[in-house]
């Protein structure tokens, strides 16, 4: 009787779980509506229809899957995992349900849980080969290199492409600290496939990287001569310091049109940057010119040429330096003509002309550069200098260029500082008292005025005695010493100005007040000016004492020894 009752109960439960054809059709219609709103990105209404579909058919695994997708988009990862787990329970053989679960876990940075989902997919489903590399990536993220390698091997098996991922497996073995296993794998491949040059190159490269350079060279010599093997052999010989052995191979590789150009350019860059005195500069010059002849107007070749000749110019003797610098300029001008919108090329060209004080060239090129880059403060700065110093320049145009440069350099304090210093120099040269009085240095975090401006003041005071301009300087300094009360260099300039104006007692008092408050900040220049003022006040012994202190502190004028010896101001 009990068995009959249990059978009736099970039958009743089965019937209650079954869905009628009508209900199933209704559930599918609700799914269609949900999909429509999903495509319209109206996810809340899509969720509402999916939930209605599940009320009709609680075993609708596709509805749970779609809910999981929506929750992934909405970043509601826990809800998404709950939904997709329901789908997996109903349909455990669907690979896409495990893939979505893995994506949800990865979105929570839970790679271990994602890996578990992928492992369930491998166990419960088929036709998963296109996802094996994703699984390998997850295991790499977990640092489980052995399992990552297994996934690569399984990919090779499923696609019937043995050894396709040899390089990747080698890298994973090395990351796992298994150099011997990596070497053994490559060694076996070279033995099993003796005609495969790629395996030999991989093996030789790994031998070289592990310090087994002789063995690597032997392997490379056994290969059919190729550009790749030659590149490796060249690098080995250079690492051993044997340039003479590498030299013919370098010449051969540079003339080989089949050899990889990017590898040639990398080799030239490395050779020119090397500190070895065994590589003649003339040889590198010859190789670069060979590349120019084979690849005329190739932008990357010309860019490499600029780097190579810049390096050669730094190492060259004085008689050869200008020839290499000329090659640099030729390369930059070629690059500029080939691509006039390349900011970096213009920047290098103008900077080089500015540093070399090639004002005529700078005037032409900076004007051209500004036609392409009218909002570059640095280019206006270069243009202003060119207008200031070239034979065809215009000083008013120079000043206008500096003003424009300053407007454009609001967010570049270093450039703004250079521009203000240059404007100050210009004002001093032109006797523009108003601009001198209004000079405002850039703000610094050091609590000191820009050193370029300080040196400009001192150079002017040492070479000029125009009282009107020095009075203008004095007014500017009255303001600056209040803004920068700890700047000993600034007080040095202020004391020098007072000295030039003949206000010796005032200068003495200024310095003594500063010495009391900031004794740790004293410079040799300030002490020397202190001595100069004392001398003018006829305090000879006190002056000599300060000059001696100045000499011991350093950073004094070249007349300090003479002042001390003769007890006299010069």
From TrEMBL:
<feature type="repeat" description="TPR">
    <location>
        <begin position="61"/>
        <end position="94"/>
    </location>
</feature>
<keyword id="KW-0175">Coiled coil</keyword>
<dbReference type="Pfam" id="PF13432">
    <property type="entry name" value="TPR_16"/>
</dbReference>
<protein>
    <recommendedName>
        <fullName>Tetratricopeptide repeat-like domain-containing protein</fullName>
    </recommendedName>
</protein>
<feature type="repeat" description="TPR">
    <location>
        <begin position="379"/>
        <end position="412"/>
    </location>
</feature>
<keyword id="KW-0802">TPR repeat</keyword>
<dbReference type="InterPro" id="IPR019734">
    <property type="entry name" value="TPR_rpt"/>
</dbReference>
<dbReference type="Pfam" id="PF13181">
    <property type="entry name" value="TPR_8"/>
</dbReference>
<dbReference type="InterPro" id="IPR011990">
    <property type="entry name" value="TPR-like_helical_dom_sf"/>
</dbReference>
<feature type="coiled-coil region">
    <location>
        <begin position="5"/>
        <end position="60"/>
    </location>
</feature>
<feature type="repeat" description="TPR">
    <location>
        <begin position="27"/>
        <end position="60"/>
    </location>
</feature>
């Amino acid at each position: 009787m009990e068995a009959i009752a249990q059978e009736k109960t099970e039958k009743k439960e089965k019937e209650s779980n079954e869905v009628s054809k009508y209900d199933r059709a209704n559930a599918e219609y609700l799914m269609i509506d949900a999909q429509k709103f999903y495509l319209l990105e109206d996810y809340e209404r899509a969720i509402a229809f999916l939930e209605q579909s599940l009320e009709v058919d609680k075993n609708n695994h596709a509805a749970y899957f779609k809910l999981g997708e929506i929750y992934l988009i909405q970043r509601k990862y826990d809800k998404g995992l709950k939904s997709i787990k329901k789908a997996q329970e109903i349909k455990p053989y669907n690979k896409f349900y495990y893939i979505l679960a893995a994506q949800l876990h990865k979105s929570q940075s839970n790679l271990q849980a994602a890996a578990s989902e992928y492992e369930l997919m491998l166990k419960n489903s088929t036709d998963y080969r296109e996802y094996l590399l994703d699984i390998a990536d997850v295991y790499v993220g977990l640092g489980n290199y052995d399992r990552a390698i297994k996934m690569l091997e399984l990919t090779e098996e499923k696609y019937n492409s043995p050894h396709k991922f040899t390089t990747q497996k080698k890298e994973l073995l090395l990351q796992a600290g298994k150099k011997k296993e990596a070497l053994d794998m490559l060694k076996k491949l070279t033995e099993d496939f003796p005609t495969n040059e790629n395996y030999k190159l991989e093996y030789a490269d790994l031998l070289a990287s592990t310090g087994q350079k002789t063995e690597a060279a032997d392997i490379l010599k056994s290969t059919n001569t190729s550009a790749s093997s030659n590149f490796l052999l060249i690098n080995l010989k250079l690492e051993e310091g044997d340039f003479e052995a590498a030299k013919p191979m370098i010449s051969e590789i540079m003339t080989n049109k089949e050899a990889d150009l990017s590898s040639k350019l990398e080799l030239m860059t490395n050779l020119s940057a090397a500190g070895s005195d065994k590589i003649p500069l003339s040889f590198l010059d010859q190789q670069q010119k060979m590349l120019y002849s084979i690849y005329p107007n190739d932008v990357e070749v010309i860019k490499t040429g600029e780097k190579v000749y810049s390096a050669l110019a730094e190492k060259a003797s004085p008689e050869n330096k200008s020839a290499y610098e000329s090659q640099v300029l030729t390369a930059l001008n070629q690059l500029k003509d080939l691509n006039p919108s390349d900011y970096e090329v213009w920047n290098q060209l103008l900077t080089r002309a500015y540093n070399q004080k090639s004002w005529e060239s700078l005037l032409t090129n900076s004007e051209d550069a500004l036609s392409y880059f009218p909002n570059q403060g640095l280019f206006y700065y270069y243009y202003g200098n060119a207008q200031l110093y070239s034979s065809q320049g215009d000083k008013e145009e120079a000043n206008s260029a500096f003003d424009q440069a300053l407007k454009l350099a609001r967010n570049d304090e270093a450039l703004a500082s250079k521009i203000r210093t240059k404007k100050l120099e210009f004002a001093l040269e032109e006797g523009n008292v108003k601009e001198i009085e209004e000079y405002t240095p850039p703000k610094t975090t050091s609590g000191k005025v820009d050193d370029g401006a300080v040196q400009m003041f001192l150079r002017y005071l040492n070479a000029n005695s125009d009282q009107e301009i020095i009075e203008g300087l004095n007014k500017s300094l009255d303001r600056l010493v209040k803004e920068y009360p700890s700047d000993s260099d600034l007080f040095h300039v202020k004391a020098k100005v007072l000295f030039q104006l003949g206000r010796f007692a005032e200068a003495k008092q200024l310095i003594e007040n500063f010495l009391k408050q900031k004794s740790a900040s004293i410079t040799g220049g300030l002490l020397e000016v202190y001595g100069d003022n004392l001398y003018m006040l006829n305090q000879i012994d006190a002056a000599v004492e300060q000059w001696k202190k100045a000499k011991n502190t350093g950073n004094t004028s070249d007349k300090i020894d003479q002042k001390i010896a003769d007890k006299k101001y010069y």
